[in-house]
Amino acid sequence: MKLKDEESTAPQARTEGLIVREAEGEVLVYDPERHRAICLNQTAALVWRGCDGRTTVAGLARLLHDELDAPLAESAVWLALDRLGREHLLRERVRRPPGRAAISRRDLVRRIGVAAALPLITSILAPTAKAAASCLQSGMACTSPVECCSQLCPGAPNGACA
Amino acid sequence: MIKTVAVPPQSTARLVASALAGAWRPSPPAFGGSANDLDAVAPLLLGSGAGALGWWKIRHTELRDAPAAQELRQAYRLHTLQSALHERRIEQVFKLLGESGVDAVLVKGLAASRLYPEAGLRPFGDIDVCVRPEQFAVAAAVLSGPRGQEFSVDLHRGFEDAAGRGDDELFARAEVLRVGGVDVPVLCPEDHLRLLCVHLLRHGAWRPLWLCDVAAAVEHRPEGFDWSRLLRGDGRRARWVTCAVGLAHELLGARIQDTPFERESRRLPRWLVPEVMKSWETPYTHLQTPMRHRAPMTHYLRRPRGVLKDLANRWPNPIEATIRLGGPFNELPRLPFQVGNVLVRTARFVSGLSAGARGERRS
Question: pTM for this structure?
Fold first, then answer.
């Protein structure tokens, strides 16, 4: 992925091919290409949705300030952009301008003291087993084709699902 | 008369019931358990596909910040995304079947999840599709073809679980659900509730989520719901339905006060609730029939080691055995149905072996 060099360059969100849902104030994103499920908290979602290719980092910081009524600096926007870039949610990753070192979430919390308002982007990991399936997957012992998801049970009634 | 059932009040199964009571409602009643109870019940909810519903129940309580609650919340997030993904798949499957001229009806899964406040609360693993028996071969060919095999479809020949309804009648009364850009037929509310009830019992009611489906279908039924259609026909099968609804009331607190069969639903056979509770102690797919079978029986003809243990794994659940033999839900002991079910399966096994042997001789 290319990196944008100019500080004035406005980041642009990548949305094609993604499945996006809102739930309880969060934005949930599934990237079928990378099989990644990601959760953006309200602040991170605001940054991501604000990345329209025209709004600069300073503009995004103003947006956050207006929407959240919280004293969030540009560093918070950079934190979100770093993570969004790593998760391939931007068309191009954005490089920090010289002199603006990366800052961790922990450092930001220390500086600002409002952890809940900071951008948070997390992976969604949970049991993904066929949670509600009632048919057998390939290779499982079967006694009739109706038991298999494939409807194929070679060797029934003592077979294995195809 | 309301019978009391012998279930330990603090069993994990009872906790599962408590964690899911009313969970299908937009504003469910609060979970009355402690943080320790939540720790105990969370793995069971997650492992049986009810994690999102568990989160729905506690999201506005002080338990929401507990570590176990965060796992339930992750399940809720994941299921929310999965349901969106499934909708896309359902759209593609029905487009594919439609192109081949197959009449298909979607059951359970999305058809059930639309009864919940949010689609992500009710996950579904495979896509259950019922087709007319005469179109089954075409449908199976389409779904095993290059475009179809990427989808996990549980294809059914007709509507076995609708118990006693003709396929033509069910197709004729089906309603249409718009999924993406495709019209997807689903059963009318009466037929779907009947199917949910029979499906629940045919699998021994081991998955709590299926009982939530029944409860949601009863409580979220549309105006003008035709009760007589739900119960019409063979009285034995109608009793299965009233028992399933009664279970939803007894274990999950489903509101049945305004149903015409409230009294009958409250009169459950004494053995029914304890059997369900037993299953709910370990509501995991891999521990259920036939997934818990270690190997096909033919394997043991050559290598008998372990056969006794695996025979024990094949001993049927009394609920499932009763349904599979078309038996009544009454106070009589279930052992005859379990034995009968074993005999039927043994006969099928032996006849399969003889057919195989004849085939080998011919070739």
Answer: 0.84
